[in-house]
Amino acid sequence: MRTAEYPRPSRVIAHFSDTHLRDPADPLVRGVVDPRPHLVAALDAAAAHAPEAIVLTGDLSDDGSFASYLELRRIVEPAADRMGAQVIWVNGNHDDREAFSEVLLGGSTREPLHQAHHLGGLRVLCLDTTVPGEDAGEVTAESLAWLADQLAQPAPEGTILAMHHAPLPVVQDLAASWELHGQTTLSAVLAGSDVRAILAGHFHQSGFGTLAGVPVHAATSLCYTQDLATGRGLRGTDGAQAWHLVRVHAHTVTSTVAPLGHHPTVVAERSAEESAAELTRRGIRIEG
Ligand SMILES: [Fe+2]
Ligand SMILES: [Fe+2]
Description:
Layout: E1 2-3, E2 11-16, H1 36-47, E3 53-57, H2 66-83, E4 86-90, H3 97-105, E5 115-119, E6 122-127, E7 137-138, H4 141-151, E8 159-165, E9 180-181, H5 183-190, E10 195-201, E11 207-211, E12 214-218, E13 225-226, E14 236-237, E15 242-248, E16 253-259, H6 272-281, E17 284-285
Helix pairs in contact: 1-2, 2-3, 4-5
One fe (ii) ion binds at residues 59, 92-94, 164, 202.
């Protein structure tokens, strides 16, 4: 019997971003796409992986309305309850701090919405990168001080940093006008810290890179996504929506892009039980 290279993950997280829900009385984003069926489909797919948490990295609302946040809770919370998953809400540039905090965080404030959560020994820090009224983000001196203070004490299983504006080079030229400012100063705070991965969004395309050696996993949008066929130009499309399945192992954190949609079968489906039986026949065991 051979033991597989990796045991099963110690923690599973569903990473959703840029849901852009609107007031249900006016649900279409840009008059084209109702993002709610995408969110429902992502929740259905995520449930198959029994995530411990659902982390939503900003632009949860499109219009910043109270009604949009109530709609978000109406859709997400019962599904999360069925999965037994904790929900971690991060705000983005489309979100209104006051409405967001009142409906999702249980207390209305206009102050930056930094948050600290714990999944057992794994810490999830949410950094508010928004500048009210601006699409671009900023890492302010106040944000950095909060983050440095949190990171001064390492967590038993390390830290995942969740933030809206992905700290990555932009792919599409126009996106430079809504990128995150202050990434060098953020690098300095992350260097040598226990941050194992950064989960982010904002650019409506899945993207991966590093900041100060820390892996950055940017999820695309569950509302509309960027068409890379435009080269360095830009076009948002109602297609290719996806979420990320994040799996935390002892020495690595992985993100798997999970596109929405049902497609024709090429390889016949095998259940988890059938897969387990087949692995046994092949003499392979997965620990955990
Ligand atoms: Fe967005
Ligand atoms: Fe955004």
